[in-house]
Amino acid sequence: MNFTRREILIAFAFLALRGSSLAYGPLGHEIVGAIADERLANSPTAAKVRVLLNGLTLEKAAVIADEIKGWDKKGVDDPRSFHFSAYCKIDRQLRDFWRANQPTHEMNSVAPSHHWFHYTDVPVVPAQAYHEGTAGRSKWDIVHMIPYCVQVLKGQIPEQNERKITKPVALILLAHYVADIHQPLHVGAEYFDQQGQIADPDKNKSALEDEGGNTFTLELSDEPPRRRGFHKRSERAFPSSDRSAAEKRIADADRATKERACPRNGDTRIEELADAIKRRHRQLCRDMGGRNPADRARGACASGIPERKTVTGYRSVCCRR
């Protein structure tokens, strides 16, 4: 079963408008997937998706690329590793994908880390388009992985590829990556020299990136100290003039993102859908004693191995790696 490029992209084209503001955690990704389910309902493409994912909805598939980060600490072969037990064929394919793309901090590794597929680090100072430089880009970043997955779905890349991305895995990854690429912190990074000053990585090869905001902190005078996500940064490491400029850039980017994501004359039916999903999420949390519904157990696989009890792929709403 091959997908046309139109079928693949129409499923996610509308999501770009909502992904920027909502896809900052499990619920945000689920909303993006749910919108795709809604837009594809009763279409031939929806039937193909249902067959490929064995009935799994895009709403639930959209969080899997982050959920499998829970395998990183002990590996997929650990007896206590979680399974997607209701979808054992997909579970096996996801484990093969993880084995082929195990996490590593060695940027020259022959095999890429599946973490790299979620982002790109295009410098934001000086601002530049993706094609205007090389710093922060790689053939395994999100800009390359989205078309890679599309090519797998179209049959242009065989399912028996080195990255172990089958058609079901490609669809699962696309459901997540299309939201990720519309998150500002997934597609840009600021670079600093050894003194903590903003640097141009094309001119200063030793400049260190902020990893999309994960390794630097922003001081906000009207908020209490944070322990996760955007933290505070010392005055010495981040001078006030640079901090003010950074605050303005972030505020401007956030404002532009919200304007694109929530146009005044937007699709009110989709807005209503998002609100309904939020209400359902809150109800599920109440029904489960305050636990996130993404943390629910999924039963036991045929092998009898215990099922996953918690989602460990998310560190915070900002962190991406």
Write the layout of secondary structure elements.
Layout: H1 5-13, H2 15-22, H3 26-40, H4 44-52, H5 58-61, H6 64-67, H7 88-100, E1 122-123, H8 142-154, H9 167-180, E2 188-189, E3 191-192, E4 208-209, H10 240-261, H11 268-287
Parallel strand pairs: 1-2
Antiparallel strand pairs: 3-4
Helix pairs in contact: 2-3, 2-10, 3-11, 8-9
| Secondary-structure element series | HHHHHHHEHHEEEHH
Structural class: mainly alpha
The proportion of strand residues reads under 5%
The total number of structural domains is 2
- Gyration radius over CA: 20 Å
- Report the helical percentage: 40-55%
Task: Give the overall pLDDT as a whole number.
Answer: 75
Q: How far apart are the first and last residues' alpha carbons, in Å?
A: 33 Å
What composes the largest sheet? 2 strands, parallel
Helix count from the secondary structure assignment: 11
